[in-house]
Amino acid sequence: MILSKKLLKYKNIRHCFLGIEGGKSKGIYKSLNCGIGSSDVIINVKKNLEIACRKINSSYDNLILLHQIHSNKFFFVDKNRKYKKKLIGDALITNKKKIILGILTADCVPIIIYDPKLKYVSAIHAGWKGAYKEIIKKVVKYLIRSGSRPEDLIAAIGPCITQKNYEIKSDFKLKFLKQSIKNKIFFKKIKKKTYFSLNKYVYHQLENLGLKKIDLIDKDTYNLKNNFFSARRSIHNKQNDYGRNISLIMIK
User: Which of 168, 177, 210, 239 is placed for a possible disulfide with 172 were both Cys, Cβ 3.0 to 4.6 Å?
Assistant: First the structure.
């Protein structure tokens, strides 16, 4: 379990970034796979979600998850209930107590945001597509419209794939350069291969939105020694599926 040093001092919230360890799943999903959308045994996944929620002293009944689609769509959660329809999008926001916001990742960037003055929390799933489509900007702008000041917001960027393991193709880079020539700083060429820094791209977006308090947890999910699930590592190992890491935040 990894915690943000910048968020730890606030006693009225609980949060965590969880990886592989401490769950019930077997095989390629061993052990804390929280991916409802994976092909894992569903009973084990639900047990893992219960374990994850207990890590922040709460229960599975309080957990809100999304069907994530690499979009810029977010939801404000105004009460804890089981939604009749799946919430399809990539970020959650609430100012209600006891509601756990959860985000699943397996190389993408999990971001959690807290406004200690207005008592808002958010959880964001930012793969390259979502980050490119400005999911982070949409969430922060919503918080600002709700009364937040950017300088009050605290953001924690959780474990994700880092640049040294994120090889990309030339058309990928061109897409980002078309968005802004300044994006070239997030790419590095090594021995005719090009690599992308997703977490630095996310950090830069938060900075540009006026946030001053940003905690970048520089843990590479691709590196098995760090004990996180990784989609890219699973593909390289010729596995047909992979587990998902969960990141949580809740107002007590």
Answer: 168
Give me the number of domains the chain comprises. 1
Could you report the per-residue pLDDT of 112-169, keeping only the tens digit for each? Answer: 999 999 999 999 999 999 999 999 999 999 999 999 999 999 999 999 999 999 999 9
Q: How far apart are CA 158 and CA 81, in angstroms?
A: 27
Q: What's phi and psi for 186, nearest 5 deg?
A: -95, 5
CATH number at residue 154: 3.60.140.10
Q: Is residue 32 part of a domain?
A: yes
The token duo for 228 is: 């996180």
Q: Residue 88 pairs with which residues in a beta bridge?
A: 67
pTM surpassing 0.90?
A: yes
Helix, strand, or coil here: 215? strand
- For residue 188, being part of any structural domain is answered with no
Q: Angle at CA 115, nearest 5°, toward 114 and 117?
A: 145
Tokens 């061993």 correspond to what residue?
Answer: 30
In a domain, 112, yes or no: yes
The DSSP bridge partners found for residue 155 are: 113, 214
Phi-psi map region of 90: left, alpha, beta (phi>0 left; psi -120 to 50 alpha): alpha
The three-state secondary structure class of 249 is strand
